[in-house]
Design goal:
Chain B: It is found in: Nucleus. Chain B: GO terms for molecular function: DNA binding; DNA-directed RNA polymerase activity; protein dimerization activity. Chain B: Its main location: nucleus. Chain B: Pfam families: RNA_pol_L_2. Chain B: Keywords: DNA-directed RNA polymerase, Nucleus, Transcription. The complex is a heterodimer of chains A (366) and B (122). Chain A contains eight helices and twelve strands. With 366 residues, chain A is α+β, with helices and mostly antiparallel strands. Chain A folds into two domains: 106 residues, RNA polymerase, RBP11-like subunit (Gyrase A, domain 2); 179 residues, RNA Polymerase Alpha Subunit, Chain A, domain 2, CATH 2.170.120.12. In chain A, the strands form three sheets. A six-stranded mixed β-sheet of chain A has the order 6-4-8-3-12-11. In chain A, strand 1 and strand 2 form a beta hairpin. The C terminus of chain A is likely disordered. With 122 residues, chain B is of the alpha+beta class. Chain B is 52% helix and 20% strand. Chain B contains three helices and four strands. Chain B has a four-stranded antiparallel β-sheet with strand order 1-2-4-3, covered by helices on one side. Chain B is globular. The N terminus of chain B is likely disordered. The chains are: A alpha+beta (366), B alpha+beta (122). Chains A and B meet through strand 1, helix 1, helix 5 and helix 6 of A and helix 1, strand 1, strand 2, helix 2 and helix 3 of B.
Chain lengths: 366, 122
């Protein structure tokens, strides 16, 4: 550390939904951690459960639930203003851990196609069924939980579905706090640009080419900020990347500067948790090896029973009129409990309110 | 009803504490003098693992540090640390965590500074 140069941050561009900056004098591992943490570990609010009261549009319930889930909601100061439902003391959702939005649209106009958009989603203030006097509410901005761009006339709203005369869509949406590791809809970033070594001096990549690499692979604009590789330059196999060009673009749920700062804070929280865990570890020092280590190893498996039990409980929710819908790739884990029952259950309920919860996970289970 | 509600937080708090205790554990292959050891961290991934590996490896007292995620569908992260003998593996891990935290603070500070310079021209 001591011989290292101090990390440098240089912001090139900064706008409402984007910040472009150069991170210098850090290692690839750290720059990548920053990127990963910004994409997947920052909490935001997103619709997680949809109770559909009536839906006579051409789109099926789960289709609409899926679309609603992906609408970005204003999540400024979400880590202080909202709790995770799993950490909340309430029984079944309260104003401290959920935001309720309602969508009530019907079309009565003849011969015209009507658009149902995110602008028709209204945040419903929640009654104080549960109130432990916490101060979360005061930490929220006024438009907390509202669809992004609702109060901005210039912003085009997000289309949810289209309807003709006689069609109706009534739904109650329960938005919760979550992170993108669970579902990509909770990611505050729409894209994170991450580039280093634009001239490929370090040869971390090999370009495929037809005849000539240089003419076939246009250089990125960041290449102007670095010396091109000379013809006779010797390859330095010890060289390490040092300058990282990052471009954070958000979906509007959080500001870009907020994403970067929250990301770095989140990384520190991870470290702090580990330090805490390390302190809690009884006699982790030199004496703890062999048996002590084993004892703890055996203590671990029961911990796994908890998530399994939770999954079972959700499966049980079936009886209570809950439709759990598995999205693409979600399959594996929920397997036995839900998907097929989901199809028939939804049908059987007919007019009754069906609760559609949509799960879709990043990546695959392979 | 209110009383029942009140009972819930105590339980959850206890559970959270339990989870925290199992955040990291020593794997059963540490050397007798504690200069080399492996740890297993629960619920962490490459985000923490790679950066931590790098910063621990940077420590001149550390001979080797590596990490692995033994199975992609288990949320476990293994870290192996071997030192030259002047510090224990646990100390090296502590120093690594502190250094990385410090580094994050520095970057955060620099970013804030830059933000002020650029100004919020939104």
């Amino acid at each position: 550390m001591s011989t290292e140069k101090e990390p440098i941050v240089h912001i090139q561009e900064h706008s409402k939904d984007r910040v472009k900056f150069i991170l210098e004098n850090v290692d690839l591992a750290l720059a990548n951690s920053v990127r990963r943490v910004m994409m997947a570990d920052i909490p935001t609010v997103a619709i997680d459960m949809v109770e559909i009261e009536s839906n006579t549009t051409v789109l099926p319930d789960e289709f609409i639930a899926h679309r609603l889930g992906q609408i970005p909601l204003v999540s400024a100061n979400c880590d202080e203003g909202l709790r995770y439902t799993r950490d909340c003391n309430c029984m079944n959702g309260c104003k401290f851990c959920t935001v309720i939005l309602s969508l009530q649209v019907s079309c009565s106009e003849e011969g015209k196609t009507m658009m149902v958009t995110s602008n028709q989603l209204e945040v419903i203030p929640q009654q104080d069924l549960y109130d432990d006097g916490a101060e979360e509410m005061s930490k929220r901005p006024e438009n907390f939980g509202q669809p992004v761009g609702k109060d901005d006339a210039a912003a085009e709203p997000i289309l949810i579905c289209k309807m003709r005369k006689g069609m109706e869509l009534k739904a109650r949406c329960i938005a919760k706090k979550g992170i993108a590791k669970e579902h990509a809809k909770w990611s505050p970033c729409s894209a994170v640009g991450f580039e280093y070594d634009p001239h490929n001096r370090l040869r971390h990549t090999t370009y495929w080419f037809e005849d000539d690499v240089k003419s076939e692979w246009p250089l990125s604009e960041n290449a102007q900020l670095e010396e091109p590789v000379k013809e006779d330059e010797e390859f330095d196999y010890n060289a390490k990347p040092n300058k990282f060009y990052m471009d954070v673009e958000t979906d509007g749920s959080l500001g870009p500067q907020e994403v970067v700062l929250k990301g770095l804070q989140e990384l520190q929280t991870k470290l702090a948790n580990l330090i805490l865990g390390l302190k809690a570890e009884p006699e982790a020092d030199t004496t703890a090896h062999g048996e002590a280590g084993f004892g703890q190893a055996e203590a671990a498996p029961p911990g796994w029973a908890v998530p399994a039990g939770a999954a079972g409980a959700t499966g049980g929710g079936w009886g209570q009129n809950q439709a759990l819908t598995n999205g693409t790739g979600g399959g594996g884990a929920w397997g036995s409990t839900s998907p097929r029952a989901g199809g028939s259950g939804g049908g059987a309920w007919g007019g009754a309110a069906s609760h559609t919860r949509y799960w879709w996970r990043m990546g695959c289970w392979c | 009803m209110a009383q029942e509600d009140f009972d819930v937080p105590m339980d959850t708090q206890e559970q959270e504490q339990d989870v925290d205790l199992e955040k990291i554990k020593l794997l059963p292959n540490a050397s007798d003098d504690g200069t080399s050891a492996s740890f297993q961290v629960i619920d962490e991934d490459h985000t923490l693992g790679n950066a931590l590996r790098y910063i621990i490896m940077k420590n001149p007292e550390v001979e080797f540090c590596g990490y692995s995620i033994p199975h992609p569908s288990e949320n476990k992260l293994n870290i192996r640390i071997q030192t030259y003998g002047n510090i224990t593996a646990v100390e090296a891990l502590h120093q690594g965590l502190d250094n990385l935290s410090e580094l994050c603070v520095t970057i955060e500070g620099n970013f804030r500074e830059q933000l002020e310079k650029v100004g919020t021209n939104i």
